[in-house]
Specification:
A hairpin with a 2-residue loop joins strand 3 and strand 4. It is built from three helices and twelve strands. Strands 1, 2, 3, 4, 5, 6, 7, 8, 9, 10, 11 and 12 form a twelve-stranded antiparallel beta sheet that branches. The chain has one domain.
Length: 197
């Protein structure tokens, strides 16, 4: 009887260990992702921001950083879709911020949303007009996707290697109001998006 109890105790202990390992291996609801975006930023923008333009008494090169929980690995911004797509509109969490103090540039693109039907790319963030103070914007269309390859399955919509072309508002953001050379329709890298439900 004592041996049977010991065997039972060992089995229960082993079962407990296996169950706890399985629980840790399962993704939590908080970390669930329905899709993602990988945005390869326009190379001339990345080079411009990160070049050391510094002269005597001026700041050094700028930076491009992720806005959490997004990730940035030069030159790609990666953001995840934390909630199911609504119709053909997917919302992604996070973004990126470009700062170049020597040229008074501070642009943030956050909370990206993509309409897989129209190609509209929306964002929330801020920018600093030349000689002005930070200007916030909310859920504004900054680009329209074109080209690439679109596909759709039973649980996901996909758009591979699309070109985000700046809207007038998107050009304004990256121009710091009116100081830069970006125009409506200018390409701003390439983007691959997955939207799921």
């Amino acid at each position: 009887m004592a041996r049977s109890t010991k065997v039972r105790a060992r089995l229960l202990l082993a079962l407990g260990v296996v169950l706890s390992m399985l629980l840790f291996a399962l993704p939590s609801a908080a970390s669930a992702s329905y899709g993602s975006v990988d945005w390869t930023l326009r190379s001339s923008w990345v080079t411009y921001i990160t070049t050391n333009w510094a002269g005597p008494g001026t700041p050094g090169p700028g930076t491009i950083t992720a806005i959490s929980p997004g990730r940035y690995t030069r030159p790609v911004v990666h953001v995840e879709q934390p909630s199911p797509i609504v119709g053909t509109l997917a919302s992604y969490d996070g973004g990126f911020r470009s700062q170049l103090p020597a040229h008074y540039i501070d642009v943030s693109i956050d909370d990206i949303r993509i309409n897989f039907t129209s190609g509209a790319v929306f964002a929330t963030g801020s920018y600093v007009p030349l000689g002005g103070s930070a200007t916030s914007y909310s859920d504004q269309q900054i680009a329209t996707l074109s080209g690439g390859t679109q596909d759709g399955g039973s649980r996901q919509l996909l758009w591979f290697d699309a070109v985000p072309r700046l809207t007038a508002f998107g050009a304004t953001i990256f121009n710091g109001g009116s100081n830069g050379s970006y125009r409506t329709g200018d390409a701003f890298g390439t983007l691959t998006a997955v939207g799921g439900w």
